[in-house]
Every structure is written in structure tokens, then in C-alpha cells.
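Step 1: inspect the first sequence and its C-alpha cells.
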Amino acid sequence: MAAFSLARRLRAGETVFSAWCTMASPLVAEQIARDGFSAVVLDQQHGLWDTATLIAAVAALHHAGSSPLVRVPLADFAMVSRALDFGAEAIIAPMINSVADARQFAAVAKYPPLGERSWGPIRAMQLQGRSAPVEYLREANEGTLTLAMIETATALSNVDAIAATPGIDALFVGPYDLSTALSGGKAQDVQAPEVERAIDQICAAASKAGKIPGIYCSNAERALAMAKRGFRFLTIGSDAAFLRDGTAAQLKALNQ
């Protein structure tokens, strides 16, 4: 896989569909990649990934020709640079609610002069085929992506300023938390009118700022619909859901 291939594709205007993995199995993540997903998110916020399984999965995805992304735990900015050093090509950071949050995220993800990321991408260079440090350094700020999650009412009110923050490459909608927040904790209807309006507002803010609009989708049908509305990085379901759906289909066939 070419180094920084996800960034190159998205910056060229392509639409990318990604899988989402929570089960902390590098083999499962690799199989999903080999089955055709060109990008896979490893979810540390709500998934079961620890550092050891994360390192193994990032490498497995590179070897499978797929771009690894990591969603870091809430406010764990230290893991941002570590995950990039492990070879992740993009970081999704939850609950980016303000410009201050966005700046802190960008600072640990980008090298000077854009940010303050500390040097040490030895494993990333191996996986991305870069032997000269200056070569990786020259490409890393453009080649590694920062996706700021917009999933609260506060973030929505600050969305234009967050999108305009230097070092933030994309806005990523967390529709379930967003729907919970906008309903005052009463519902998780991601297609409620106020949520749909917010989703379009976030997409428009990203596009206006020249950033990449992204969103989590529960299934392929929703992802295709969101792509038509302007989103260009779309994640679909989860490894657990894929397993559950496949098992259910086989059991249904057996029980007919």
C-alpha cells in the first residue's frame, strides 16, 4: 500500500467507505480489509483495543493493503501521537467541542510549524516504506489526517470555528451522541428532523472550510444516502454487527 494513501484519496476528492472494528481482534480487522474495505477504524473509545492489539492490528491492516484509522479514547491526546507512531494514517478524536479542543488535537497530531507532535515514528516509517526520516517528516502533516468528532450541541454551535482550525482535516459526525444531545437525553433517533438538520450543517461547515466531511453510518444503505448528501468519508456498521448479521443469516437459512 502506498504511504498515506487515505489522505491522498480523500484530498483528491474521492469518497471512501470504511469498516469499523471494536472486538480487539487483529485477525478480524485484517479479514475485513482483505474482503474489500480499503480503510478500517480501530475504535479504542468504546471498543476493546489495548495497546498491544492496536499495534498488531495497525500492522495487519497495512499488510492487507488497507488504511488503518484509530478512534482514540475521550481526551486521550497522548494516544493520538502514539497511534500515529504505530502507523495509523488517521485519528478520530471524540467530543471536540471547542476551538481549544481542536487546537489541542491538532497540536499533538501535526509536526511543527503546524503543531507540536514529538518525533518518533519508527514503526510508522517501516509500515509506510519510508527509510529517510526527512521523507516521512516532509509528508506527515499532509499525509496523516485529523478527524474531529462533532457530537454535542456545544460542538454544533462552534462547528464553523472548529472546521476552520489549522491542523483539523475533517469533521466527523457521531450521530448517536448527537441525537442523544439534541433530544436532551430522551432519544437516539439519528433521523429525527433536528438531527438531520445538524448533520447537513456539519457537512456544510466542513465543505465551506475546505475540510473533509465524514460520518458514522449503521449500514451501507445509510452510507450511500449520506454520500449523496456530500459526505466523503463514511464508516459502516462494525465487526460485531457483521458477525451478528452473518450468523443470523445462516441460522435463518437452517431454520426455514
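Step 2: inspect the second sequence and its C-alpha cells, then contrast the two.
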Amino acid sequence: MIRQCNDKDFEIIYSIINDAARVYKGVIPEDRWNEPYMSREELRLQINEGVVFRGYEEDGELVGVMGIQHVQDVSLIRHAYIRPQKQNRGIGRELLSDLRSRTDRPTLIGTWASAAWAIRFYEKNGFKTVSQQEKNRLLKKYWSIPARQVETSVVLADRNWLDLHPFP
């Protein structure tokens, strides 16, 4: 079952993110890795800045989370994490579909350029990687991330974005 997460879910969201993010260690640039990957303070800041989490619940326990944030004229998919032992069972696809059904805005996703599995997942779900130049522009316009993270990331766009902003 997919449901809206609330304040009571904060610690489990924190746990899921940091449990699932271990896959990035040794894959993303070393200077971008933190332990824990996302601090409680950063998670609280993300929520305060408008990231709304939806969670996938199985047998009364959250096993996956994915956030959506409406920024200016777009929706951003943020912080998509599934417990490692629950991955590859369609949970991410269901959460992504749920979030996409909750917005009529063009949707963008940022992820690490070295996270090939994440890029493949989003591409299988209808997103396309934008050009390097467009990526740099979009990350600066819609995200608040350090320059180093801009350098090491990609942006994927949905059909709504691509129809409005065709690129070569």
C-alpha cells in the first residue's frame, strides 16, 4: 500500500534513505559521500523546503519512500529509496507512478551520473536524460545543490517537459 508519510515516519524515512544509499559508497565521488549519507538535519531541511514523501508499506512497515517537490513550474522527484532487501520487486515503479499521478506539471529527476542503475530505472519509466548544458541550467534553476554535485549529476525529464522544451 502506498500512503502519505507524516511526522511520525521521520525516523523510518531517515533509516530507509541511509540503508538504501549505502549502494552509492565507492560509486559516487568520494568527496560527495557522507556518513550517514543524509543527516537528520538535511532530511528535516528537505521536508521544510517542500519535499513531500510517499511511502510503500508492506505488512504495516514502510519499506520504500520517494518524495516530490513542486518548484516554480515543475515537480521534482526527490530521494527515491527502497530497502535493499525489498528492491527489484516493483516498489520503486509503483511509488514513481503514484507521484506522477499527483502532478500535472512537467517532472524532472536528478541523480548521480555514476549511478547507472538509477538512470536505467528512470529511463525504463519514461524519462530521458537531458543534455549536459540543459542539465547544468536545470540543476541551477530548480535545485539547491553545491557546484560539485552539479558536475557529478544528471537530470532526466518526463514527456511533459520534453514536449515543452525539445532538445537536440
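Step 3: confirm your contrast with the notes below.
The CA atoms of residues 134 and 155 lie 8 Å apart. The chain has one domain: 2-164.
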